[in-house]
Design a protein that fits this description.
- The protein is built from three helices and two strands, in the order H-H-E-E-H.
- It has helices at 8-15, 41-52, 76-87; strands at 57-60, 63-66.
């Protein structure tokens, strides 16, 4: 069995990063990530993670981005449609 890149504790720590206190200089800029699309899916994912460091918290230019997921059946598309409808 292949060893994971990060331990469970490391993943939890990455998920729990507080964007109000994180040092942006310590985060990688997603615009610098170049994933080889010729790789198989699993290898592309691993390549992305190796390059970005923390896939839950990174920079896009001067902005800090934090990604989180909720255990729900509602899709991103459903959420976007609901948001758009609420603004119309």
């Amino acid at each position: 069995m292949e060893q994971p890149i990060y331990t469970e504790e490391q993943v939890r720590a990455m998920q729990n990063v507080d964007i109000r206190t994180v040092d942006p200089a310590g985060l990688r800029d997603i615009r610098d990530v170049k994933v080889n699309t010729d790789l198989p899916k699993r290898e592309r994912i691993l390549d992305f993670i190796r390059q970005i460091g923390n896939p839950y918290c990174y920079r896009h230019g001067k902005y800090v981005v934090k990604v989180s997921f909720t255990d729900t059946d509602v899709t991103l598309e459903d959420r976007m449609l609901s948001y758009i409808r609420s603004k119309c």
